[in-house]
């Protein structure tokens, strides 16, 4: 059984479904409203657990009803939340504007996530030591990510970083992270190269990898994934699906990637399988509610003729 530790964020999503996203200064009438647990770290942890991983989550939620709901959601999926602290600062929240094409715009207020500390990570060193893979994102303080990287490296673990929301990264991360998984926008911010097709995604991946990474994976939405490993680039197309909501698709990809790699799949096969899982997640609404379980994935793989 693959063992995964996720150090990251928890967010309650407020989802506004609209015919289209409003223009600057414009008010429009929406179609529907819903709430769902999310947060990049929590989403990745849940996806990994739903696919059979043994998952521990490290971070902070608020001491409020939103925090309780997120912890119930994670625990119900099999995620161990013993290393999640409750903080009076309140649970992180996001407003998601989702248009009829399935594309979204998101504003996230981190709240308790930004009070996660290096001590929180140190308290979880025992599970990091026993893990196969450690997952990180950028919705918590970078000093906390730095501590998590140092502990994971100390114990010889594979480290996957989803550099979102994108920002300038110190050289330390390029030198010490094993795998980085930006989407097109994040790859563009990290590399300074406009990413609008497979060729430009490869150019961006090479620019990012040149700073010290062996593996960069650029997720391209409906256009699949660009994998760059050891200077070899491969484009893996995504299956065509009826997209309802792209929220958490990248988290679904990264969480499932950790599972496939932890199960011993070669990198290219693991990326291909994770891309299919991520595509499947876009067929349902919401972040965590959209994440497919093992049975869902096996059935979908069967329709595509994929053997695992």
Structural features:
37% helix, 9-stranded mixed beta sheet, alpha/beta, 4-stranded mixed beta sheet, 308 residues, globular, UDP-N-acetylmuramoyl-L-alanine:D-glutamate ligase
What features would you describe in this structure?
The chain is α/β, with parallel strands linked by helices. It is built from eleven helices and 13 strands. It has helices spanning 40-50, 65-77, 118-123, 125-130, 142-154, 171-176, 184-191, 198-209, 249-262, 267-281, 294-304; strands at 3-7, 11-17, 32-38, 54-62, 80-87, 92-98, 104-109, 133-136, 158-161, 179-180, 215-219, 225-229, 232-236. The strands form two sheets. The protein has a nine-stranded mixed beta sheet with strand order 5-4-1-8-9-10-11-12-13, sandwiched between helices. Strand 9 (158-161), helix 6 and strand 10 (179-180) form a beta-alpha-beta unit. The mean pLDDT is 95.
What's the layout of helices and strands?
Elements: E1 3-7, E2 11-17, E3 32-38, H1 40-50, E4 54-62, H2 65-77, E5 80-87, E6 92-98, E7 104-109, H3 118-123, H4 125-130, E8 133-136, H5 142-154, E9 158-161, H6 171-176, E10 179-180, H7 184-191, H8 198-209, E11 215-219, E12 225-229, E13 232-236, H9 249-262, H10 267-281, H11 294-304
Parallel strand pairs: 1-4, 1-8, 2-6, 4-5, 8-9, 9-10, 10-11
Antiparallel strand pairs: 2-3, 6-7, 11-12, 12-13
Helix pairs in contact: 1-2, 1-9, 7-8, 9-10
Shape: globular
Q: What is the CATH domain class?
A: Alpha Beta
Rounded mean pLDDT is 95
Q: What's the story with the biggest beta sheet?
A: 9 strands, mixed
- Structural class given helices, strands, pairing? alpha/beta
CATH evolutionary superfamily:
Ribokinase
Q: Strand arrangement, largest sheet?
A: 5-4-1-8-9-10-11-12-13
How many structural domains are formed by the residues?
A: 1
Low-confidence stretches: none
**Structural Rg:** 18 Å
């Amino acid at each position: 059984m693959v063992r995964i530790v996720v150090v990251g964020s928890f967010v309650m999503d407020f989802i506004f479904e609209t015919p289209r996203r409003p223009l600057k200064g414009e008010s429009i009438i929406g179609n529907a409203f819903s709430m769902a647990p999310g947060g990049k770290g929590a989403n990745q942890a849940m996806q990994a657990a739903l696919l059979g991983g043994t998952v521990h989550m490290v971070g902070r939620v608020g001491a409020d009803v939103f925090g309780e709901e997120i912890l119930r959601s994670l625990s119900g999926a099999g995620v161990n939340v013993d290393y999640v602290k409750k903080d009076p600062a309140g649970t992180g929240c996001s407003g998601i504007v989702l248009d009829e094409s399935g594309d979204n715009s998101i504003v996230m207020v981190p709240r308790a996530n930004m009070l996660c500390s290096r001590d929180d990570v140190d308290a979880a060193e025992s599970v990091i030591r026993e893990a196969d893979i450690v997952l990180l994102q950028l919705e918590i303080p970078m000093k906390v990510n730095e501590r998590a990287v140092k502990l994971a490296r100390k114990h010889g673990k594979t480290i996957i970083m989803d550099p979102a929301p994108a920002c300038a990264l110190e050289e330390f991360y390029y030198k010490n992270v094993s795998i980085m998984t930006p989407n097109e926008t994040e790859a563009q911010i990290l590399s300074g190269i406009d990413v609008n097709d497979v060729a430009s995604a490869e150019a961006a991946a090479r620019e990012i990898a040149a700073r010290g990474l062996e593996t960069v994976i650029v997720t391209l939405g409906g256009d699949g994934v660009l994998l760059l490993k050891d200077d070899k680039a491969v484009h893996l197309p995504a299956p065509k699906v009826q997209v309802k909501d792209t929220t958490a698709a990248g988290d679904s990809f990264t969480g499932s990637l950790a599972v496939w790699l932890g199960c011993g799949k070669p990198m290219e096969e693991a990326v291909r399988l994770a891309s299919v899982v991520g595509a499947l997640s876009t067929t349902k609404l919401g972040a965590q509610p959209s994440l497919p379980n093992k049975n869902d994935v096996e059935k979908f793989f069967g329709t595509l003729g994929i053997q695992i």
